[in-house]
Amino acid sequence: MSQIENEIKLLKALAHPIRLKIIKKLADGELCVCKLNEDVEFSQSNLSQHLRILREAKVVKARKEGMWIHYSILDRKILDIIGMIEELSNITND
Length: 94
Description:
By secondary structure, the protein is an alpha+beta fold. It is built from five helices and three strands. The mean pLDDT is 91.
């Protein structure tokens, strides 16, 4: 896969509202799937699909512990990108 294809894959992964919510939930640290699935409006299978896309885009990493899979942000620079997007969206709303 080329560099540009990797960049597109990353941007597409970040652009989906559910995946953005997942990333924001993981901003404070690692969470198991059971915690990610709390207080959300989507099913467990839907959550799993979005987590797979985030893993494939190298946004999150997974760690298995017993029966649970724990997810965390792979590189904290992702949160910097999200922060910049939030700042830019505030500028355009002014």
